[in-house]
Amino acid sequence: xVDIVLEGVTKRFGAQVAVDHLDTRFASGxxxxxxxxxxxxxxxxxxxxxxxxxPSEGRIxxxxxxxxxxxxxxxxxxxxxxxxxxxxxxxxxxNIEEPLRHDRRLSADERARRVDEMLDVLDMRxxxxxxxxxxxxxxxxxxxxxxxxxxxAEVVLFDEPTTNIEVDSKLQLIRAIKSxxxxxxxxxxxxxxxxxxxxxxxxxxxLMEAGRIVQQDAPRALYAAPRTRFAGWFLGNPGMNxxxxxxxxxxxxxxxxxxxxxxxxxxxxxALTLGVRPEWITVGAGxxxxxxxxxxxxxGGRRLLxxxxxxxxxxxxxxxxxxxxxxAPVRFSVPPDRVVLFDPEGRALEHGAPS
Length: 355
Hints:
By secondary structure, this protein is α+β, with helices and mostly antiparallel strands.
């Protein structure tokens, strides 16, 4: 197993900076998801790791070897694209085996063993002899995953492999990818704009915005303690609520808080923002008051309330039995240890991260 280290990696297309001086490490044997909105640079970064794009500046090291000047075939990298490229006249097993035939180190028995391994992991043994033309897009993409992973490449890259797949097949493919990556422990970089995929698959999420990684962390840590307002907004369905707060006598006060928060050491009183996730707010008690609008949405046995609170609009998730009807008044609060404070530049302040 190998890690991937980026040192000052930058990619420009004319005057446009797609990737902006990245310094980071993707750990050996882990799944790292590059997550972010369209145009943030995640696919460009992955293509540089694969050798399909050349960095304008910086170094890319795979297992300590600088690969920036090497062609794709010399990097020992497998890749799964958005659109599965298959040999339509070959069977499932033959498509998985095809790239193995070019490795002279592998005997026929070893090739057969790896094909069988992939068919078992992907739960496709019954489709071993089916032709690719007989499969739907989701099953074809499973074959593409098996083909990339069966090479036992040091690194496998996934470029939004579920984007063009219908919902049912997408869920099956995500389960298959999770099974493969958990079992074989190759170093995986997985590009997606879908936070649910990232939270499901990743050991670590590298959240990108405007060509930079704004936070790289374990999924739960990234969700619970975002370091920027962008991270709090992008993760979650919906993302964080943001409220302006007042600072008095070294304390942060807001009627939504069940108790004041001591102003973090070294922080000047100023225009701070309080961030709180909808599910961290407790309804039915507290000093804060609001009115439920006519937008009450059911989500998996819970309710998502839209609440007018002064001049602000809040989203609150609660149990269905606790949800007031549209138009009703509602009281609510949140403990101090369940919020994140942000400075005027949108950076999180350390005051005790939510658990």
